[in-house]
Amino acid sequence: MPIHVELVSQERKLFEEPEADIVIVPAVEGEMGILPRHAPVLTTLGFGEMVVRKGNAEERFAIYGGVVDVRPDKVVVLADTAENEKNISVAAAEEARKRALALMASGVKERNREAALELRKAELALKLSRKMQQGGVKLRILDEEE
Known about the structure:
Elements: E1 3-8, E2 13-20, E3 22-27, E4 30-34, E5 41-54, E6 57-71, E7 74-79, E8 82-84, H1 90-105, H2 109-133
Parallel strand pairs: 1-7
Antiparallel strand pairs: 1-2, 3-4, 3-5, 5-6, 6-7, 6-8
Helix pairs in contact: 1-2
């Protein structure tokens, strides 16, 4: 029995897989693996990597907060912000990281929280991008009809 997975951001549905084998999400308490027939859970997501596996294929996403609703036959991830790892721009992430560090170094307290959030996002994007470049990750590209 597979598990149905949906990833939705504030803007749109980013991903759907009706027959996944396992889903790994970055819950605030730590990574959470979800298999079919998992007990119902509603929990908060932190910053991290979401992995959806089906057979030998997998899709990976950078998740920047949100919630996950787990049911025995379905997982719905409502992300504050998310992006597919293959769409991460290393140059944009590096630029965001530099901007955030400069803002934090300027000493403007009102902007420190915003800068720290931008820094966390950039560092996660860079970490996941490096992981992808090291190889071994197989991506399955979904058609619009899937």
